Every structure is written in C-alpha cells, then in structure tokens.
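Apologies for my clumsy wording, but could you write out the amino acids of a protein and the tokens describing how it folds?
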Amino acid sequence: MSQTKKVGNLKELLCSNVERYGDANLYAWTEGKEERFMSYNGFQAEVNAVGTAFAKLGLMGGHIAVIGEAHPAYVATYYAAANGGGVIVPLDKEITDEEVANFLNISDAKAVVYTPGQNDRIIHLADRCPGVQYFIPVDATNESTECDRKLPYYDLVQMGKDALTEGNRGFVDHVVDSSKMCSILFTSGTTGTSKGVMLSHHNLAHNTMSAAKAMRNFPAGTRLMSVLPMHHTYEFTCVHMAAHIIGANIFMNDDLKYVSRNIKAWQPEVLVLVPLFVETMHRRVWDGIREKGAEGKVKKVMKITGVLNKVKIDLRKKLFAQIREAFGGKLGAIVCGAAPLAPHLITDFRAFGINILEGYGITECSPLVAVNEFGKERLKSVGTVVDYCQVKIDKEDADSGEILVKGDNVMMGYYKNPEVTAEVFTEDGWFRTGDIGHLDKDGYLFITGRKKNIIILSNGKNIYPEEIEEYLTPCELFAEVIVVGREKEGQPVITAAIYPDPEKFEGKSDEEIRTAVKDAIDEINEKLPQFKKVRNIEIRRTEFEKTTTKKIKRHKV
C-alpha cells in the first residue's frame, strides 16, 4: 500500500480511495445465482445517486437507519447519509421487532433501508414508527406487504441519477463538517439499557486510517471476505472503510450458512473475524486430522516447520497445503477482535502458515484501540496502541487497572443521554473502557478482565445482563434474579441465577421447583433474540448477598 494522505472525514476518505483505485474491483456478491461486481468508481457513483435522492426527498442531513445482510447497498447508504451532513443508524438484524421499532424512534430516523432478509418484517413496523417517512427495501421483488411510505432502493438510485443529470448538486457539493456526528451505534438491545454511541466523521476517519496502517503490508487487490454483521463497528471500520484504503477486493457473504463454501470459492487472502469463527475453523481442522489418524504426524511436522522458520526457511504453505485448501488455499492472515482469543489458536494457525493479528476495540472508540502488526506480534497481547489514540492504566494495584482511552477515535457521547456520558469520562476527559489490563515496557496492551457487568460471547456479541434481567424480573415466580456469564468448556454461557419466591413454592420438591423455573425461562426466551437467550439456570436456596443499599453484590454471584 502506498502512502495514504491524512483525511478528516468520510467524504475525503471515499474520494481519496476512488482517486487511487478507480476501476479496480471493490465488491463482489451474489444475487440469486448471479455473481455481480462493483468497482471503486461504481461505488462512488451509487453513493452520489443515493445521496442526491435523499436530497431531493428532503432527507439529506437527516437520520437514516439501515439494517440487514452484507450488500453494497448497505455500505452506499452509510456513506450517502453521512456525507450529506446526516446521521447513519446501523441496526442489528438479530434484534426483535420491538427493539427495531424502539431504536428507529429513539434515533429519530426519517428513513430505513433494509436488505432482502428483512423483507415483510421491517415494513410491518410502519404503524409503530410514525417518524419514518420512507421504508426502502433493497429488493422489493419478494415483499408482499404494501405501504404508501415504501420506496424501493433501486427506484431511489434511479431518482438520484436523474436528479444528477438535471444538475442537482446539493449532495455532491456538500461540504462536510468533520466535527459533526455522523453515526449512532446502539450498544445494547432494550430501551432501558440501550446507549446510542455518537461518532463523528473525525472519529471514524482517524480510526479508519489507524486500522489501515495495520493492513499496510497487504497489496492493492488483496482479496477479503465480509463475514461479520454489518452493524458491528469492528466490521464496518476495519473492512468496509479501512480495507478500501488498501484497495482491497471484498466479497460480500450475506449468510453465515454459506461461510465455509464461500471461503473455498472466493479464496480470500485476509479474513476479519471474531474468536467464534476462529475456534470453529480450528476445531474442524483438527477433527479432519484425527479422522485420518494423522494427529501425531501433523504435530511433528508443526515442530519441524517451527524450527525452520527461526532460520528463515518457510515451508508451511507447501507442507500444510491440504489443510489450507479448506480455507481456499490463499489465506495468509486473520485479523481477530471483539472478544479474547485463546493463545493456542494463534500458535496453531501460525504453524499452518496463517498469521492471526489480535486486536482490541470498543464501540465508543470507533472501535480500534490496539492491534498487533505483522512481524511485531506478541502472544497474549492485543498489540500496541493505534495512531491518533492514547491509553493509560488507572491502576488498582501494582500490575493492572482500568484501561482509559483518549484521542481522535473516542466518541462524542451517548445520544440524548448526558448523564451516562458524564459517568464514563474522567474529569480530565479520559474514556473509561470498563476493561482491566496493563501495558508492558514496550507499549503492548494486555487485557486481563472486565470491570463492567458486560458478558462478551465468543462470537463478539456484547450482552448486557441488565437487558435480560428486564425480561426475567417481572416473573412472579422469581424473588431475585441475576444474569451472569459462566465459563463452560472455555466459553461464556448466559446464565440466570435465580432465587425462587419461597411463598410460591412452599411445600414443593426441588424437582418441581426446577421444572417450573425452567418452563418460565423457556417462555421468556421466546421473547429474546437467539444470541440473548438464557442457556443455563442456577437455582438458589437463599437470598443473594446485598449491599447496605440493598443492591445485589454481583461480584459475589
């Protein structure tokens, strides 16, 4: 990657990328059985068309929501909203209808763009979202529900093209205020605990350049695959913005069911993943090795290649070619973040010729805070602090403390929530991450624990216990309940620790109590998204230990 000039906003970022890569392929994806492609120039043209259509409809400068699977229209909507002086609101496609409606209303969305997987779902929320003026399906072909506020995406694109032909330059000539909020990202899923992280152009542009620097050894044309949820700031910043800077060619995987198949077909050279994917890939590799009775042989070869690597003789790609074929044969790097990764996964993949670069981020920091770079990796560390960012440790003991962050990547605050915003910043402006860690003498950051109650699943999902407790506490069978993450086979499992109401179960056996509690949990789980369902139950015979103000001591549970 050649030297990238510093940019201050997403419009400058987009124009710079197009200037550098022009007609080179940016996106590849499938619609039906047809494979489609879009160049950097073609992407900018679509952004300009969508942004101009927003201007013509009176939406330019407003809040635009987007929800769904990976698709170029999703990314074009993001840029069109932000670069017209508006605010993009990416929503998690896995949350419930109630949560989608709540977030559309809370965020003041004037329109919502949604991909085919959300057809006939989002449009049903029209009556509950009076402020949404336009419901915009990317492909309305299979959407049976009619609504006078529906406007198909490609009709929107054509409207913008026509307006541009007629000389409407309101969008393309708009001067972006880099300090202005351009994105609201919700960190959780219920109205009681949701926080809308406000990010500016300045935040995202600087963090994108930092992420791209970690990828600077990847040449233009590097093949990536978009795998993670599109609303996730880790996916969007590190793939759909940072990878543009290096001139990447990105395949849009729109369904997790087809990840393995598409990896083999697309033959990516780089993947950006969360630990769950790495763990699954690792398990399948070793299952295949054991089925062939080759475990001992493979481990012996791994030791030999490790010794050879130390003297600059690299035979990994040749000796482990069969293993690498499962990942398309060209995969050389995995960027992994959003949750802790077991060190043995890194060493095993490195032995096969696939380097894993572990990093650390948080939505409030756009999200990247630290990342390992090629040739400078340090095992068990999430790497060194990225550019335009500072980290210090608010020490609680001699070795570690809460990680504090300050810099161009740190959020503006929480949308319509100044009280909570004030709580997460120190008096001198440092953001409290809620994570515990330390910096070594060389500036490498190590994460050692969590200060907040948050549960981080291996797929990178952040689960706030309070969210689930809002559903559990109204149950009349429960006197007290706390949700925690329990380790099971090395993975955090959402667990409800419950003290049943003794009056409701007077004279009942333990088995009768457990059955009744389980039935109640099953009923509540029906109201929760798949990734938030309670998977484990612990029944207590006594009340929880409490503070003097009668708050349950979570750290004692």
Observations:
- The first helix runs from residue 10 to 21.
- The CA atoms of residues 267 and 328 lie 4 Å apart.
